[in-house]
Specification:
Length: 287
């Protein structure tokens, strides 16, 4: 049996669809106030019979901040995909750490107690060093002296630390570091916020570049890693490195909106609401 945390989010929802296509038995963790209907909307993007597949999901109530609820949810579970996270930068720093770092530690410890066979943790490229300008970053790139990362990146980095501590205690696990994930989701967080801003007529863009990846590619890569003999390693998941300007203008063209035409320096991004996700979340390098 498979358990997915963050099931109603962007990655979790698409991951469930792909697992169900392979006739896997999927258990999804949800909070008491979770909007499970958002998964149906994701399923509709893939074609017919969204209700049929939705009914195949086994729901268990719990929260990554509640260790005992995780122990209950993992009863009889063999594989765990830990997708739950806070991406919304409007949340407090303590909230980010509690969920992204503390929640991951709880998931890891529950997996160890339940003797889960393998865990996949969704981290982020935000947890990696930024590098210098257009340097190519890989999984082994070290952090530079006095290099800083975003608060979100730090929270994901702490989550990776919790997974590695679990590995040292005998847990088999893989970590994936996706770039900016593009895909349909009802929730307007992460890349969904970018689409919302551009659709509203946002005229600004930032002179930066980062890695982007399709959510379907992320889901498929995670499944391949979990079914493989690969363990105790991490992998960057990026489809292509693109300029933010190009991405934003393509989104605008898709909506039939005016393309963003006002360039902004990186220093302005931190105080501008227009590119909060790209500026604060990924701290990407300007040309």
């Amino acid at each position: 049996m498979i358990l997915i945390t963050g099931a109603t989010g962007l990655v979790g929802g698409h991951l469930i669809w792909h697992l169900l296509q392979e006739n896997e038995q999927v258990t999804a963790l949800k909070r008491a106030n979770s909007d499970v209907e958002s998964i149906k909307m994701i399923f509709q993007c893939y074609g017919s019979n969204p209700e049929e597949y939705f009914q195949k999901i086994i729901w268990r109530e719990g929260d990554v901040e509640n260790f005992s609820s995780l122990l209950s949810a993992m009863e009889g579970v063999d594989y765990v995909y830990h997708c739950a996270a806070i991406v919304d930068l409007g949340k407090s720093s303590q909230r980010l750490m509690n969920v992204n770092a503390g929640g991951t530690k709880n998931v890891v410890q529950a997996a160890l107690q339940r003797k889960v066979k393998k865990l996949c943790f969704v981290s982020s490229i935000a947890a990696l060093p930024a590098g210098n300008k257009l340097d190519v970053i890989d999984e082994l790139t070290p952090f530079g002296e006095n290099e800083t990362i975003s608060l979100y990146g730090e929270s994901k980095q702490m989550g990776e630390k919790a997974v590695n501590e679990g590995i040292a205690q005998g847990l088999d696990a893989v970590i994936v570091n996706p770039g900016v994930i593009i895909g349909y989701s009802k929730n307007r967080t992460g890349s969904g916020e970018l689409f919302k801003r551009v659709k509203s007529g946002m005229p600004f863009y930032t002179n930066g570049i980062t890695g982007y990846v399709n959510v379907q590619d992320v889901a498929e890569a995670m499944i391949l890693l979990m079914k493989s003999s690969v363990r105790n390693d991490r992998f960057i998941l990026v489809g292509e490195n693109k300029c933010h300007k190009d991405i934003l203008q393509k989104i605008a063209a898709g909506y039939g909106k005016f393309r963003p035409f006002i360039g902004m320096r990186k220093s302005l991004i931190y105080i501008a609401w227009v590119l909060e996700i790209l500026g604060k979340l990924f701290l990407t390098c300007p040309f």
